[in-house]
UniProtKB/TrEMBL annotation:
GO molecular function: aldehyde-lyase activity; zinc ion binding
Protein name (Swiss-Prot/TrEMBL): Uncharacterized protein
GO biological process: carbohydrate metabolic process
Pfam families, alphabetized: F_bP_aldolase (PF01116)
Amino acid sequence: EAILQAVNDYGQSIGKEDLPIIIGITNTYRPRPQSVYYTQTRRWDLGLNLFLADLKVLTSEPSPFARLKVMVHLDHVQWDEDEELLRWDMAQFSSIMYDASTLPLEKNIRKTATFRERYGHTIVIEGGC
């Protein structure tokens, strides 16, 4: 919410209320598993669903942030540990950083290319080496 407030405040200061913003979250990415810590349950699925629900409420009428153009970035989706997440409807994200960096480079490239072929027509895909 603080990020939305800061963008909203800046937009008002320059006379533009519909600024674009990308808000990102990681899932089970070991250095920073944000969705895991979104709730006390430590369940990534609950955390990620709550994050998305919070954003929906905060960016819908009558919220003061309803005019912002919010895009959701899913960062460092792990090719192996996020296998269950990868079966979700990925269309709820604007962009995804698909991370197969634990694999040898050739396998990483193949996995990332397969992911891009599956979702690249609707979502911006970034690959991790």
